[in-house]
TrEMBL record:
It comes from the Bacteria. InterPro entries: cNMP-bd_dom (IPR000595), cNMP-bd_dom_sf (IPR018490), Env_Response_Regulators (IPR050397), HTH_CRP (IPR012318), RmlC-like_jellyroll (IPR014710), WH-like_DNA-bd_sf (IPR036388), WH_DNA-bd_sf (IPR036390). Keywords: DNA-binding, Transcription, Transcription regulation. PROSITE patterns: CNMP_BINDING_3, HTH_CRP_2. This is Crp/Fnr family transcriptional regulator. It comes from Meridianimarinicoccus marinus.
Length: 235
């Protein structure tokens, strides 16, 4: 990826675009670009946090290892999104591990650089708090989705987020492995297959890593409908 393009993506990220141009220039001058291959680890759970990460290309998953040895996916980040702000500034261990689920490029901002900037300008601390709250709100929304939607509705919403248009038909490419998609949506891989089968009723055809959506609005109506309605349907 050309330097000017990736730098622009980083500048337009939710985190950096909230800083002044001078502050952003300073952070970029002290940061490092890193490329990761698919399945390569960025950092491990309980490793001391030293950097804030901004994804400039590809996808990164954050996950925890459960007591029974399983993997619980906490979130998935893509181009223009940042993570690790809170723990990096506190210098505490990462509560999760991070792994590239596709070939990925990441900008790593040293926590020490951000800490020094906040010391010089306390207003920069407000920006960091805003980024942290954005992640918190995203997790709350994810929890609400798990509680309020069926598995098929969660998959429908996931597909809609990948659409580049608001209406009509659309062909989307699944960005990463279906096992990761299932984990991100809080369902089992076999349930994901059943969800894709269910979505055929609403004009979705999945072939390998592509999903053809016949009518975006029809799929959106399904994703936003009351799950209780399905229990009340008669055979």
């Amino acid at each position: 990826m050309a330097d000017d393009r990736r730098t622009q993506i980083a500048r337009n990220s939710l985190l950096l675009k909230s800083f002044t141009e001078q502050q952003t220039d300073m952070l970029l001058s002290m940061s490092h670009w890193h490329s990761y291959q698919r399945n390569q680890t960025l950092f491990q759970q309980d490793e001391k946090a030293r950097s804030i990460h901004i994804v400039v290309d590809g996808w990164v998953k954050l996950y925890r290892i459960t007591p029974n040895g399983g993997e619980a996916i906490v979130s998935v980040f893509t181009k223009g999104q940042s993570f690790g702000e809170a723990v990096a500034l506190r210098g505490t261990p990462y509560p999760v591990s991070a792994e590239a689920v596709t070939d990925t490029e990441v900008l790593q901002i040293p926590a020490a650089a951000v800490t020094e900037m906040v010391r010089r300008d306390p207003e920069a601390g407000v920006v960091m708090l805003a980024a942290t709250f954005t992640h918190l709100h995203a997790l709350v929304a994810q929890l609400e989705q798990l509680k309020a939607q069926t598995g098929a509705q969660r998959v429908a919403e996931f597909l809609l987020e990948l659409c580049e248009r608001e209406e009509g038909s659309c062909l989307v490419t699944l960005p990463y492995d279906k096992v990761v998609i299932a984990g991100r949506l809080g369902i089992k891989p076999e349930s994901l297959s059943r969800a894709f089968s269910k979505l055929k009723e609403f004009g979705v055809k999945v072939s390998r890593n592509n999903a053809a959506i016949e009518d975006i609005q029809r799929l959106r109506d399904f994703s936003e409908s009351d799950p209780a309605a399905f229990w009340n349907k008669r055979p």
